[in-house]
Amino acid sequence: MKEAPPPAVPTSGPSPAAAPACKAAAPPADPLHDPTPLTAQQIESYQRNGFIKLKGVLSPETLKHYAQFIKEEVEGVRLYHDQALFKSPGGGHTPWHCDQYYWPLGSSKTVTAWVPLVAVPEDRGPLQFAAGSQKHDLGRSVGIGRESDKHVGAAVEAGGFEVVGGPFELGDVSFHSGWTFHRADENTSSSWRNVMTMIYMDRDMVMTEPKNDNQRRDSRDWLPGVRPGEVCAGPNNPVIWQRGG
């Protein structure tokens, strides 16, 4: 992958103004608007491996504050391709897959932020990445499920890809490319695994003709009014960062 993420990683979250009924105390600062600088070594690691996990991007206080809005007001808030991924106690494993299979997007200039709202020890099923897999087609045309688990899992093993995982402390955030293959174990704990994800794309990203039912659904849900060949500049897709801006 030739492109690199911007030198400052944006973070996103629901605004307190969108949930006036919630009486949670405000966090001590405004960390969602503070950039997280990346070193040259971190950028090179992301380009090589297709993912990176950063320690302490958000404080436990900030996550606790915004978790209340997400839980209480989620039915009234809809942000472009932000998703709440809550895996219940006993929830099954997440098969091998890559996210960009689902997106009708014209380039690989995408990145997903995986933001746990709780600590994710091994028994809650943290993400696992196949390092460097974003550069290889290990099953890009296969949707998530038993087939992808079998096909991609075999390709990861045959190709000798290192599988990198490990627990997430509260405040840790990982970022992965749209073509990076990843999975997660089942949640064997007695607690929910609560995670928010935010998907970012190039400002000039062009929508492509959907290639499968999942992409057709995504085009309707996340790119309303945008047609194939047009820049993904719909009402749900604000520019949240630009160089020199």
UniProtKB/TrEMBL annotation:
<dbReference type="Pfam" id="PF05721">
    <property type="entry name" value="PhyH"/>
</dbReference>
<feature type="compositionally biased region" description="Basic and acidic residues">
    <location>
        <begin position="209"/>
        <end position="221"/>
    </location>
</feature>
<protein>
    <submittedName>
        <fullName>Phytanoyl-dioxygenase</fullName>
    </submittedName>
</protein>
<dbReference type="InterPro" id="IPR008775">
    <property type="entry name" value="Phytyl_CoA_dOase-like"/>
</dbReference>
<feature type="region of interest" description="Disordered">
    <location>
        <begin position="209"/>
        <end position="237"/>
    </location>
</feature>
<dbReference type="GO" id="GO:0051213">
    <property type="term" value="F:dioxygenase activity"/>
</dbReference>
<feature type="region of interest" description="Disordered">
    <location>
        <begin position="1"/>
        <end position="37"/>
    </location>
</feature>
<feature type="compositionally biased region" description="Low complexity">
    <location>
        <begin position="10"/>
        <end position="27"/>
    </location>
</feature>
